[in-house]
Amino acid sequence: MKTQNHVWLLLLFVFTCSFIIPDATATNTSKSSQQNVELEQAKKHFMNGEFQESIDLLERLMVTKTLPKESYVEASELLAVAYVSMNHDRKASNIFKRVLHRDPDFKPSDHWWPHKRLMNCYYKTFQEVEPSPKRSKKGPGIQTIAIMDFENNSIDDTAKYENLGGALSKVLISDFGVLSNLKVVERERIQYLIEELELTEKQVGGKKIVDESMAPRLGKLLGAHSFIFGSFIRIGDNFRIDARIVKTETGEIFKTASMEGDPDKVLELAKKLTLKISKDLELKIKKMDKEKLEDLGKERVPIEALALFGDAMSNANQEKYEAAYAKLEQALTVAPDFKKARDMLDVIRPYTL
């Protein structure tokens, strides 16, 4: 009888404790849910142009030091963007340093590429943390490639296509970026490095600093094995793109490729050029990568829309966000399904409110 009483008392004790002692898992889940809510609130503040409110929430989140890795990186990145938006570049740099020490391969998501000052802040910080980028030596052939802005050789409407070269470079970088056996240097990083070289050599506004002869030097600084230089020309109903592939080690042109066709199918032309260059470089394209590339080429974007996108890129680089926004709206009027323009519009919208 006493044994039965002891059993009942033990069961009663366990049952009572289940109400008194908090469930650690439930507590952690509740805390995580609250942090996710605050992170979403910080995003909303940012998208509404309320940068300081976003900073206040994010700083409080970072102090807790209990964010899971994925949320920590996302919150850190947004906090850095908000700091730069409030001209606190030094604070943004400190955030990047903290993240890079935890993850040396970290870089801001592609979503933020239109924010030049943010990207420059990151690249400057990255150079301080990792001053000597190294070229990959894994696997045969070319592993890392850098694509320069294309030169405008058009005779008619030259001014209209003034910034098309940057937009065309951006498209090709995206196309080559889907190839899993190739690494492509971000355009923003190339531009940052070129500006640094121009300042160092006091050539701002002077002679052109970037041509094939600079490939060895730039390649070493960027960790790139090869460069693609090129030009384009619009003549009536024909659009032509010419590319030169240059070896970093020697600065020699070892392959050339061209593509021409309908100006209203410029993304399709870019896709075909990507495939042609890949073949010249003897890259093995996986079936899945080729399917992704085919999907990118299906988007119908007339040359006029891509030129307006290039104008928006140029304006955003100068932090003329309202002008950039207007150009993007024009581009979307011409090509309503132009995803790059739509994505860029979302990124710069907070700076126009």
Produce a short descriptive summary:
With 353 residues, the protein is α/β, with parallel strands linked by helices. 58% of the residues lie in helices and 10% in strands.
Description:
With 353 residues, the chain is an alpha/beta fold. It folds into three domains: 29-129, Serine Threonine Protein Phosphatase 5, Tetratricopeptide repeat; 144-297, Rossmann fold, CATH 3.40.50.10070; 301-353. It is 58% helix and 10% strand. It is built from 14 helices and six strands. Strands 1, 2, 3, 4, 5 and 6 form a six-stranded mixed β-sheet that branches. The longest helix is centred in the N-terminal third of the chain and has 24 residues, at 24-47. The chain is globular and about 55 Å long. The chain starts with a helix and ends in a 5-residue tail after the last helix.
